[in-house]
Amino acid sequence: MLRGKRVLLIVAGGIAAFKSLELVRRLRGRGAMVRAVLTEAGAEFVTPLSLQALTEDKVYRDLFSLTDESEMGHIQLSRDADLLVVVPATANLLAKMRAGIADDLASTVLLATDKPVLVAPAMNVRMWQHPATVENIQVLRQRGVLLVGPTEGDMACGEFGPGRMSEPEEIVAAIEQALGAGGPLSGRRALVTSGPTWEPIDPVRYIANRSSGKQGHAIAVALARLGASTTLVTGPTRLADPAGVHTVHIESAREMLEACSAALPADVAVCAAAVADWRTAQQAGQKIKKGGNAGPPTLELAENPDILASLAAAGAKRPGLVIGFAAETETVVSHATEKRRRKGCDWIVANDVSPGSGTFGGDDNTVHLVSEAGSEDWPRMGKDAVASRLADRIATFFTA
Ligand code: C5P
């Protein structure tokens, strides 16, 4: 299933463009949301009206259209997608992708995106076998562009050989694979919190912490890879929004709680965010001035909501599996065991952040998985590896 997945279809100018209509129908039938960009040459093969009717959305065509830019600029088009799919990927568009040419909406979106891209090439056999195309494909593959087809067969030009675009059914399968839709968590919904929170003092100052968001973001990616429809609620970080994940940006703990509540129901919640424990009891409406007789201001603090504990106590909306993190500097496991009980969650991933561990902001982590069954010590590994192992454990929880 592709429920909730957002596919941006780029329809370029080749005879195989007609198959894009059937592709839209099949993708929507599997629950995907499809939005289409049509190139000028593409419009010679399929009408904008057909695409518009099948996607039930506007068809995006013009890089410089004022309405397009005000409603949905090229950056936003890619931001709002989990995957970009080029059907058909013509020799010309592949060459532009390789060279980084951005001279229309389709090529600009492809250059501006940080989302995964799947191309379904279609062209005459000699164009496919031309050294220029062979080299372009090689470079694009190295850059991580995914390929489906082409297949061998009779072609519209009367020749036979490789260059025929894959059938919609095969393209759907490739899309599902690219989005992890066949994975053990497909059909499941995951919620992940990540990063720090910023608690405003006045319009320009805030209280924050050093969380990088690396671990939380990696967990969101790992869950999406296993097929979960994943929402990442993140505080401000330097990290890019992960591909295939619905990312919601917040600043304060209270905003994080609101965004998490809005993301329910979920099957699993992983709270990896470093939520500020306190916020200022009052936020000044104007910048607090320094100087004067009053001296430095005194900040009165108020307790923030505990998002993990709230999710664990969400009654009928409680995710089936609620996982928290515990950053500890000593007696890591016994503190985490106590925290599991206190927060009402199912598992605690306890990590050692003692000075010299390099965990905070670093790429590695040493964790212990604490559950009702006891505690498991994991070897020191990269945060990505911790994320994959945790995602695998989550998948086992739901499939066992
Ligand atoms: O109480 P402590 O901050 O040590 O708990 C850590 C765990 O609780 C983490 O999973 C963190 O994301 C979560 N937490 C939260 N909301 C808070 C404080 C912590 O979700 N206000």
Compact description:
The protein has 400 residues and is of the alpha/beta class. 33% of the residues lie in helices and 24% in strands.
Characterise the protein shown here.
With 400 residues, the chain is of the alpha/beta class. It folds into two domains: 173 residues, Rossmann fold, CATH 3.40.50.1950; 211 residues, CoaB-like (Rossmann fold). The strands form six sheets. The protein has an eight-stranded mixed β-sheet, with helices on both faces. A six-stranded parallel β-sheet has the order 3-2-1-4-5-6, with helices on both faces. The two termini are 21 Å apart. The structure holds cytidine-5'-monophosphate.
